[in-house]
Amino acid sequence: MTKAELVAAIADGAGLTKTQAAAALEAFTAAVTGSLKKGEDVRLVGFGAFKSVSRAAGTARNPRTGETVKRPASKTARFQVGEGLKAALNG
Q: What is the model's pLDDT at position 4?
């Protein structure tokens, strides 16, 4: 599903215009991004949780050349599936 398809699905499901649905989606992604930047988790009961994870610095290997390079420490996001979503996928 693309972003445009998601906006259309939100608009149809919530009775909004596509412009309103796009604004709601942008507000949602901005709120999640802001919380993760602060190191806070975002939990949606029954759906899942977005978590901020820190990666330690280390070494990596360039697959083309085999050269070892240093990888700096960084932050990334992970999504942990909730029980409701897992049940819907498997039911």
A: 97
